[in-house]
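Deliverable D5.2: sample structural annotation.
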Amino acid sequence: MTVAEDSEAAGGAAAQATDVAQSAGANARNGRRSGDVPEGTVFMSRTKSFTRRSRELPVNLARTWEAHADRYVIEPRRGIGYTTVADDFHLDTEELFDRRAPLTLEIGSGTGEQIVAAAVANPDRDYLALEVWVPGIAKLISKAVDAGVDNIRVLEADVAQALPIMLGDACLDEVWTFFPDPWRKARHRKRRLVSDDFALQVARVLRDGGVWRLATDWDDYAWQMRDVIEGCPLFENPYVGQRPDPEDPEPKRGGFAPRYEGRVVTHFETRGIDAGRRVHDVIGVRLPRESV
């Protein structure tokens, strides 16, 4: 996802080559920083797809975190930095939710509008969120508490680093990547999350027939998403060559899907629409693994 509320501001911050670890006092909003490193330590920034907001929580969100984080937030063993997971960290999803149920991963949950709505509508499914924006995680928790849902868990982690480590093969039914940071400048587009290499990781964690759902309101990123799906031998685009709007004269729009009916109109999407941008949906279906 997008770091939901301020993706443009995020771009400049994430472009920095280094990140200086903050002192324990500056990060003591909840006393749970297992990723702390010695004050003054400098390490290379891993996150290129979105940026963690390093600031203390407002009082109301701090209270929400204190009261309910244990119910929803996964605290992993950390590598170096707050948004990494340790090389030996593995997530047992059935143990995590105490049941076996269809599981969806949302990459970049923002403030939780999408994932909480889905959890309410589908109590028989489980939902795992990866997000690096801590105030957004706190708002997600607040929404989940208000909705009374217990089929959501959220982890503060950079998906590019964490996904290859923490999830095993064929453990997910769906992956959602809605409105990831577009990295609009040409020189920054190499930082976009949706890439050929990342598609292989998503294919690895999806079960056969599982679905990768993507959406963006930036045209050139939409075409990149479509090309990544169609260029990956492990995915099929069920809408290849089709145009959802037959009257659309732009031939590059071929291969896009109708709007996913389970995707709610978030505040983030509304901002793009108000700015005159058009939303594109892309779907990749995980092809069957070869029989042994």
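Annotation notes: The radius of gyration is 19 Å. The beta strands are 18-20, 42-44, 73-74, 103-107, 126-131, 152-156, 172-178, 206-216, 235-236, 280-286.
The annotation will be released with the project's public dataset once the embargo ends.
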